[in-house]
Every structure is written in structure tokens, then in C-alpha cells.
Write the C-alpha cells for this entry.
Amino acid sequence: MQRSVTRSPLAGYVPSIIAFALVLWILAFNAFTYAALAAHAEIGKAFASAIENDSPVIEGYVALGKVLRSLPGMANVGNSTANAAAEPLVARIKPFPPGASAVFFGGAQSPAHGRMLWTHRLLPFALVLACVLWWRRQKPVHMRERLRA
């Protein structure tokens, strides 16, 4: 008696595809929000100069975000989160602009600020999870009848 298998051959890829989509979403979120924060009217210049040569990952987010925000229709993506995160930080960064990275990474001052810090720390774990899920995905197995002599 033969069984017919109706499972899709792509079914083993679904968890890894979802994990890689999560990685791309987190990367895009970080790129847009950190680039918007670096372009903020009040503390953007202080933040950009504070992370320069000190936070290469954040510099990468800002560089990628600048490229993405230069695309048509994407110029304002990330502004609302960056403005909400910058609002409580303005009073602390304006008196001493070189300490902008210490103030920003010191602790969350608002929900938007916490979200930016949380996704920044989440990306490496999501990337490792996506790689492990890809490595451990179910591969299609082809069975064949045993050959007898």
C-alpha cells in the first residue's frame, strides 16, 4: 500500500523564511529610525558626531538608512519614532553634545526610545536564529525501492 504525500516541498523552508523576513524587518526599522534620529533638527548633529568611529553598527544603520530614505517616497519613514525617542533626550543632550551616545544608550527614556534600543539588541539574535533555522530545515528525502539481487 502506497501513501500519497501531500506536503509541499517548500514546507521545510517556512520557519527559516519567516526568520529571515524578521531579520530584514528589524534591519529596515533600525536603518530608518537611526537615520531619522541622525537627521533630527535639534540633536541629530550631536548624535551623528557622537556615534562616529564609536558605534560602527549604528553608523552602518545610519548609512543604510540615508540610502533608503533618499528613495522616492521614503524620506519621512522613521521620523515619528525618532522624534518620539528624541523628545526626552533633547534636554540632556543639548548642554553636552559629545555625550549624546552615552545618553542615548544609557537607558530608555520613552517607549519609542526603548523600542529602538530593543531592536538594536535583537538583530544579532534574530540573525543567529534565522541561520540555525536555515541549517536545521527539513530537507526533502527521496526514498527508492530496495534493489534485490
